Amino acid sequence: MKIGIIAASGKAGSTLLEEAIKRGHDVTAIVRNKEKLQNKEVAFIEKDLFDLTSLDLAGFDVIINAFNAPQDKPNLHVTSLAHLTSILKDSDTRLVVVGGAGSLYINKEHSLQLKDGKDFPDAFKPTAIAMSEALANLRLVTDVNWLYLSPAAFFNPEGERTGHYTLTGEEFTTNEKGESVISYQDYAVALLDQIETNTDNQVRVSVRY
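The chain above was modelled as a monomer; its predicted structure follows.
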């Protein structure tokens, strides 16, 4: 497939980039600064996310949005997704979003999210709130083929690639050890698996060990 990865020079984006290349896809890095790309051989579009147009993204089978807003500007999670859905509307391009764990539900009624829990770190709340709002807005989008993949609560940049993971739904879950964790590398495995084998549309799923 022809896959474009927004923020391909970041931690998650660069991991996804290498996983997609490893699988033989035609990959384009979409970055603000091409000099920050670790892979100097990959095709690229050097452009700010908010300057991207429908023409820039035409012809891609999938756009992966790995953009992570600065902690002091959490609302960019909301505005960036709004921009991407506006330029992808009514196209055949699938938008796959690297999401957050804070919006996973912690009760069966789906009235409380992980970010609402008393143990959720205050430092991460503004980002979690903004990402939850961005997801809520995305759920209203009916003219874009989108998939939102939430990682586990501990999204481990240093973890190894095992190739194993557990795909779960909208609710926060833990493994048999009571842990909610996934490495960046195995998150990339799960996300690319979803792109290659899954046809679910306009849904959020989550992944952990």
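The mean pLDDT is 97.
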